[in-house]
Design brief:
single chain, 238 residues, alpha/beta, Rossmann fold, Arc Repressor Mutant, subunit A, 6-stranded parallel β-sheet, 6 strands, 49% helix, globular
């Protein structure tokens, strides 16, 4: 099938208010699996499919998906390259990186390229849908196992006498803010953090917002990266 046909809008949209999703993967079976998951879920619509980064970039030139599920390992243009182009050119589109396994080769580069989350392909359908909704809502989605891999990768990338990168100074945080960072590093979302801390979700959001302001970052992923650089979060080896 010509790529121009493949990149055509999928016309069976359920509702214009649904979260419009573009799936990008070079494996037909994975595209089929994601199609089944999204088609069966209320509130989600599959807007289109692409098989590599170039097709994904071209799709966004003429369409505006809300969220892109982006595979990392693809021919012609990989997911990291495509993510950087799309998040730079189309800031209203959120990219959720999805890969067969948590690989440091793609993990940190994908997040630095602008991906709002990073999950693994063997996640449960509900976890995938929750991750799509999270990045659509402006949060971040990171599988718990990926959170730990991210921290490990950042620590190794900045392995010096100090865990703080050159030119950065340690920023004072309250005990409550530190607690939230440590729970975030375990892959918890705001409701889970609130439950663990026995506080309201609005309290978690307020504290997390202050941490982001202190770190000079805009989202939870970058908050976790910065916290790992400062040595404020630890690995949890289960």
């Amino acid at each position: 099938m010509p790529s121009s046909h493949r990149l055509a809008l999928i016309t069976t949209l359920k509702n214009v208010s649904d979260i419009q999703v573009l799936t990008v993967d070079n494996e037909p079976l994975m595209l089929q699996a994601l199609r089944i998951i999204i088609d069966a879920a209320p509130g989600f619509s599959l807007m289109g499919e692409a098989t590599n980064g170039i097709e994904a970039v071209n799709f966004c030139a003429g369409n505006s998906p809300d969220v892109i599920l982006m595979d990392m390992q693809m021919p012609r243009m990989n997911g990291v390259e495509a993510t950087e182009i799309i998040t730079t050119s189309y800031p209203d589109i959120s990219v959720l990186a999805i890969t067969a396994f948590s690989s440091e080769e793609f993990l940190v580069p994908a997040l630095r390229a602008g991906a709002a989350g990073y999950i693994i392909k063997d996640s449960e359908p509900k976890e995938i849908l929750d991750a799509i909704r999270a990045v659509f809502d402006g949060s971040a989605a990171i599988s718990p196992s990926v959170s730990q891999d991210l921290i490990k990768a950042i620590r190794e990338a900045h392995e010096t006498k100090s865990s703080v990168p050159e030119g950065m100074t340690r920023i004072p945080l309250s005990e409550r803010e530190l607690q939230i960072l440590r729970l975030l590093a375990r892959g918890m979302n705001n409701p889970e953090i609130a439950l663990e801390m026995h506080v309201a979700e609005t309290t978690v959001k307020a504290h997390l917002g202050r941490v982001m302001a202190k770190f000079g970052v805009r989202d939870r992923v970058q908050t976790l990266i910065r916290a790992a650089q400062f040595g404020l979060v630890e690995l949890h080896m289960d």
